[in-house]
Design a protein that fits this description.
Layout: E1 3-4, E2 20-21, E3 30-36, E4 41-44, H1 50-57, E5 64-70, H2 75-84, H3 89-96, E6 103-106, E7 110-117, E8 128-135, E9 138-143, H4 150-157, H5 168-203, H6 209-239, H7 247-313, H8 328-349
Parallel strand pairs: 1-2, 5-9
Antiparallel strand pairs: 3-4, 3-5, 6-7, 7-8, 8-9
């Protein structure tokens, strides 16, 4: 079990070899499951043993089985689940490569989806991978961290809920809809960052803030790229002719597609805000530079006549006015002070200082 940070670690290996690749240390693996029908519901806290085998091998058409795997540390255990479910080996390879792009793969009897989720607990904008596999009445979801779908399990447990009258495609829709909702948390974090940056740029446009603006712009680009992939997946599902997805679920997927478009449009607004923040920063720096140049210019202009006077009386001529007068230097100093006062008054009158 090798944990690598770069995709290049797989160079030279045959396809289908499960090697964890990611920026974070994989969390401890936990496998839970549930089975429900229109009249019954059973939840299992740990199915890493024989109960997991029974849950996978059950072929009842009335039962919908959901296995959730959180944490990718135990590669052998997770791969054994995939082997029991008779999944394509490339699916395991893609799941353990957490740096792969979001996508959807239709293997005929198997539907495989990779999504990016935005954890609400993260202070900064971070995404983690969510994988969904559908085969018959079996759905396997895999997440890098803990189970983010506890609210869905709670809804399934209600005997009169919609899950009891819909098929497994509705469960898939609910998971995707939950993932899309997390993107609104991401938008809120981006809005908070934009407000803070805009306020700081106006009040104190320091040189350090330019790095934060650049980081913010890179975050927007990354987020928009992920939303773009999410949009393609949801659009494919809403228009797919796969037998796994019913017409009623396609209607729900079109609603999710509308949410994704809303997120996409909001990101465009935030991108314009980022450009506006950069323009405000450049304008503030330019105004500060102009202010400094104005002060320096005023000082230079004031010293021009003073420099002229001192230059004239610094020449070695004996016939200069007041050169032999004992109080001559006082007269010169007084004249220089008067000139300075008059020039400052003139500058203030014109509001240059």
């Amino acid at each position: 079990m090798t944990f690598e940070d770069h995709v290049s670690a797989k160079t030279g290996l045959p396809p289908g070899i499960p090697i964890y690749i990611g920026r974070h240390e994989p969390e401890i693996t936990k496998i839970t499951g549930l089975v429900y029908t229109s009249d019954d519901f059973h939840e299992f806290d740990d199915i890493s043993g024989p109960s997991g085998i029974d849950l996978i091998n059950t072929q009842s058409e009335d039962e919908i089985r959901w296995i959730h795997i959180s944490g990718l540390k135990d590669i052998e255990l997770i791969n054994s689940i995939f082997t029991l479910a008779d999944l394509h080996p490339l699916i395991a390879e893609d799941i353990f490569n957490t740096r792969s792009r979001a996508k959807i793969e239709d293997f005929g009897d198997i539907l495989f989806i990779i999504l990016d989720i935005v954890p609400s607990a993260e202070k900064e904008f971070q995404t983690r991978k969510i994988n969904i596999i559908i085969k018959g009445n079996l759905l396997i979801s895999v997440s890098e961290t803990g189970n983010p779908f506890e609210h869905i399990i709670s809804r399934i447990s209600h005997p009169n809920g919609k899950f009891r009258v819909h098929g497994i495609d509705y469960l898939m829709y609910s998971i995707i809809d939950s993932v899309v909702d997390t993107y609104f948390f991401g938008l809120e974090k981006i809005e908070d960052i934009a407000e803070v940056l805009e306020e700081r740029v106006v009040q104190d446009p320091s040189s350090e803030i330019i790095r934060e603006i650049q980081y913010f712009r890179h975050t927007l680009i990354k987020f928009k790229r992920q939303v773009w992939s999410l949009r393609d997946i949801v659009m494919h599902l809403s228009r797919s002719d796969s037998e796994i997805i019913t017409d009623s679920t396609r209607i729900f997927m079109r609603d999710v597609y509308d949410h994704v478009i809303k997120i996409f449009e909001d990101l465009d607004v935030h991108r314009e805000m980022a450009e506006g923040i950069m323009e405000i920063y450049l304008s503030s720096v330019s105004n500060r530079t102009n202010e400094v140049m104005r002060v320096l210019t005023v000082i230079a202009v004031i010293f021009i006549p003073l420099t002229f006077i001192t230059g004239v009386y610094g020449m070695n001529f004996s016939s200069l006015p007041g050169i032999d007068d004992p109080a001559g230097h006082l007269v010169i100093f007084g004249m220089m002070i008067l000139i300075t006062a008059l020039m400052v008054a003139a500058f203030r009158l014109k509001k240059w200082i």
